[in-house]
Amino acid sequence: MKKLFLAGIGFFLAMGLTFAQQAQTTPEENATKVVTELVTKLTLNDEQKTAVSTIVLDQEKAIAAVIQDSTTKVDVKKENIAKIQGESDTKIAQLLTDEQKVAYQKYVTERPPVNIPATQETTEQKESGNGQSNQQQQ
Question: pLDDT tens for residues 79-109?
Fold first, then answer.
């Protein structure tokens, strides 16, 4: 009975790791998804698609680097990501027609925020009262 129980726990842990790995995507995969969406929503021509692809791939690589940086706090990461996205948005807007700019602005406002996974530091801050030590609270 004990072996069966342990085997069951092992199975669920393995499944959890499998799903966690599937949730992680590469910058290239993210860029392809974004560009495909932009081509559809903005009806980009081939020249625009090529230029936008380069900009978005660079953006996704930069965002991935920010997220992977374990020395940076979450709020700083969010600021850096917003800056990267803003720079990319400006570059992309320069390539678009006036009609496409309107549609792109709508896309930008509806764009979901980048998911920043919780780090060990974030978890420790929550457990200790948002980063404040017990001595500071007294």
Answer: 999 999 999 999 999 999 999 999 999 999 9
**Interatomic CA distance for residues 50 and 44, integer angstroms:** 9
Q: Are 63 and 81 in contact (CB under 8 A)?
A: yes
Distance, CA of 99 to CA of 117 (rounded, Å): 36
Residues contacting 39, CB < 8 A, separation 6+? 49
* Calpha distance 61→77 (Å, rounded): 14
For the entire predicted model, the pTM comes to: 0.70
Q: Is 26 helix (H, G, I), strand (E, B) or coil?
A: coil
Q: How many CB atoms lie within 10 A of CB 120?
A: 8
CB count within 10 Å of CB 39 equals 16
Q: Any idea of the CA torsion for 72, 76, 81, 86, to the nearest 10 degrees?
A: -150
Spatial separation of the C-alpha atoms in residues 53 and 2, rounded to whole Å = 54
